[in-house]
Structure formats: structure tokens, C-alpha cells
């Protein structure tokens, strides 16, 4: 005869009440322990800048990391339109040797 296997209890079978706060109350999804993040707004949209130039190196270096990589949208806060324009201008500045490809 086949032996019956013993499995660990699942979430519905005696798993316990779940995570709890220090005062003993269960955590809720929108409890004060979880903070909502503030949405970043595009700097170019707020200032109504329509063109980004490769000549403005100081502005372009704000959107690169210390290693020389282009910062992603989620970190820089740019909209998709301005992020594409910014990336293109950074690449032009790199080709003209105004900005380094990699910093060490």
C-alpha cells in the first residue's frame, strides 16, 4: 500500500494571523507604517522648456550618474517625451567630446 504523505500546512490551514505591529494589531495595506511616495514631476514641463540643447552641459550632467550613465525616468522624474530628448542630446554631447562616455 502507498504511504500517505504529510505536507506542511498552507495559508488556510493553521498558518497564523500574519505580520503584526509592535502593539499587536495586524498591519493593514494603508496603515501609517506604509508611506506613499510623492510623484516626481518633469522639470522641463513645469518650466515649459520645449528644446533641450547639447550645448548646455551643466544641465545635461544633472541627468547622468557619477559613472556617466543616463539616469532612468523613474529616478530623474522626466516625462517620456523629455527623457527621449534628453538622452539624444546627451549622446550628441558625448560624440562631440563635451561629456565623457564613462567616468572612472
Q: Total strand count, please? A: 0
Biggest sheet statistics: none
Strand content: under 5%
**Assigned CATH class of the domain at 44-95:** Few Secondary Structures
- The total of helices stands at 4
Radius of gyration: 25 Å
How does this structure look, described?
The protein is mostly helical. Helices cover 28% and strands 0% of the residues. The protein has helices at residues 43-46, 57-61, 73-76, 80-95. It starts with 42 loop residues before the first helix and ends in a 9-residue tail after the last helix.
Short structural summary:
The chain is mainly α. 28% of the residues lie in helices and 0% in strands. It starts with 42 loop residues before the first helix and ends in a 9-residue tail after the last helix.
Main features:
mainly alpha, single chain, 30s Ribosomal Protein S18, 104 residues
